[in-house]
Write a structure and sequence with these properties.
Elements lengths: L4 E5 L4 H12 L3 E6 L7 H12 L4 E5 L5 H11 L3 E4 L13 H22 L3 E7 L23 H20 L3 E6 L2 E2 L8 H10 L4 E3 L6 E2 L2 E2 H12 L23 E6 L5 E2 H12 L5 E3 L15 H7 L7 H15 L3
Parallel strand pairs: 1-2, 1-4, 2-3, 4-5, 5-6, 6-11, 7-10, 8-13
Antiparallel strand pairs: 9-12
Helix pairs in contact: 1-2, 1-7, 3-4, 4-5, 6-8, 8-10
Length: about 350
Amino acid sequence: MSKSKKMVTGAAGFIGFHLCKRLIEEGDEVVGIDNLNDYYDVALKKARLAQLESKKKFKFIKLSLEKKEDILSLFKSEEFDVVVNLAAQAGVRYSLINPYNYLDSNIYGFLNILEGCRHAKVKNLVFASSSSVYGLNTRMPFSVHQNVDHPISLYGATKKANELMAHSYSYLFGIPTTGLRFFTVYGPWGRPDMALFLFTKAMLENRPIDIYNFGNMERDFTYIDDIIEGVIRVMKRIPDSNPKWSSENPDPATSAAPFKLYNIGNNNPVKLLYLIEILEECLGRKAKKNFLPLQPGDVPATFADVENLIKDVDFKPTTPIEEGVKKFVGWYQVYYGA
């Protein structure tokens, strides 16, 4: 991947911020897009952004993906060679309360990105999907070669829709597209609506933590640096069509079009109660536990099969949960003065 101009949407978000930082370090010119919505603390987004805006090779544009004319005009004027779409309305539980937000950003907004890539002849589009697409699947580990037709949240459904939309544009217009199914991303500068962040905050404030499914939860927690390494490697590998792809026995992960899907997960699910044990050790205090039933839209376990990631880009996430949580807690205590 030569030094060139990259577009990263969701640049003030957790993954977007870390990706922009890494690309700038590698010498790329980066245009970051974000609408700085208030789904969670805008001050945290602005603090991430402040670090990026101090860099010469970074330009920030405050913009929502739904603004069709502005997005298309941006593609025309900037001439990106690679686009990474990380902007989305996130959160499984929030999609039960505010479903329309998900359609605006995740569907209509993504369509504008696809149209921009099409007309500007972008060489490579990498976009965020999610482990949420696996929905009712219980066959572990989750494989990109499995069908994922039973999402149990609107968020998961919009991410599955993104994969289908990207595939259709790949097929019709030859746009190389790669979908990345992220598994429970955590680490410094993380999202305040995620379990690790919520637990840390509550424990430091001496409040009880809500533990769903009565603690019978497992997540394939994936450290942010591993996610970014995976994204960077995939960006450098422009997908092509699979010559062995069969329309009689279609493989969901590849295509006759230049389209690919990958899981990026730690390939090592961790019990939620063990995560809390690590957190207790890092914070030097015991958690007050409030056990609750499984919430609508949640699944009991996630576990990523990363065989294709290893095969195609020679990478597998390796950060142990103990090390990752320690780094997160260190950042949290400094950032919040806790």
